[in-house]
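Listing S7. Sequence submitted for prediction.
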Amino acid sequence: MGTHHVGQRIRELRKMRQLTVRQLAGRVSISVSLLEKVERGDRTPAPGLVAQLARAMSVGPDRITGQPYMNGAESEDQVQAVIPELRRMLLTYDNPDDLLVSPRPLPVLAAEMDHVARMRQDGQYVPMGPLLPGLLAELTHLALRTADEQERRAAYWWLARGYRATNSLAHKLGYHDLSLTAVERVHWAADRSGDPLMQVTAAYLRAGAMVRMGAFGSARRILEALSGEIERLAPEASLSEEQAAVQGAVLLKLAIVEARDGKPERAADRLAEARAAAGMLRSDTTHYEMSFGPTNVRIHEVAALIDSGDTEQALARLREWGAEQDRTEWELPRGIVAERASHHHIDVAAARLAEGDRQGAFADLATARGISPVHTRFHPTVRHTAAALVRLDRAGDDTIAGFARWAGV
């Protein structure tokens, strides 16, 4: 077991900044008792609180979470080894090194990138990572050198998806500087693709990065502008399924912004708008790699309550929806992308721990691991929750300790 957890890093940074517990709690508008619980490791801080604490102490969120994680076997993973090559690709994006052979035809590259995108959504980062540098290189050469305008725009469109996968990989592994660069490259490629919805997607990703950094006002302005832009794209205010899906994803991100910014009523309003948008769809969708539909609205409803600190109501909502399924608690339907499903269980695990249900918290962590092992292993909330479970375990349950070791705690 490592000696450092999120709470200890917060305490150390607070002391470095010569702040008392009361002073820091006041800066982020939380109670002294909550901050004390977080510093002791008895309470898992929501991502929004981590961002607020980081901003209050003038550090990046990664200083609090301890990312990127390089301990144990993770330092030897293929997925870590590809990071230097991806840095080189993002640096030389408009002036790439020569290829040893000509790039493959666009349909072949598109099919391979579509496979990479599905791997991203399923949290399969280890097999996905090594595929990215070569694909990005071939698509870049094709986009920069082809004389055919239609093929060039299509190459940039697929290149934007490749940069999105790079952003996701970097973010999940904790390389936040690389993630931010990848977001800028998504913008660069999307602007050249000529596809307005891909451009909206690029701006959506930028807003997501702002949310993670605690820049809630900036993220809100971007997302609200995107919502208006999508409506302007629709003829006679009749959204296509793709437009409705992207619009819904924007509204859900806005709900999370409001929840993390301490505005639960506004978050509820955004969720209601997203629910209405989901009603326009036949089922859950993944247009433009945006997971959206009735299920994802419910997932975000729970996440918004947790981010707002209302963990009791979040768990009550799961029981309420479970009754509709004749179950004790709501279960996600099959077919939800693995990354989204595992993220839901990670959030719920933290909520259960906050409500004193250690057994339930561990069960959700185990479920998240079963759905998407790599996503779970590298998630900072998992590490903090697992560490807290070990500290609170009086019986010395080796199952819990084993999970914590696996997670790198």
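Caption to Listing S7: primary sequence and predicted structure tokens for the chain studied. The two ends are 5 Å apart (CA to CA). The first helix runs from residue 6 to 16.
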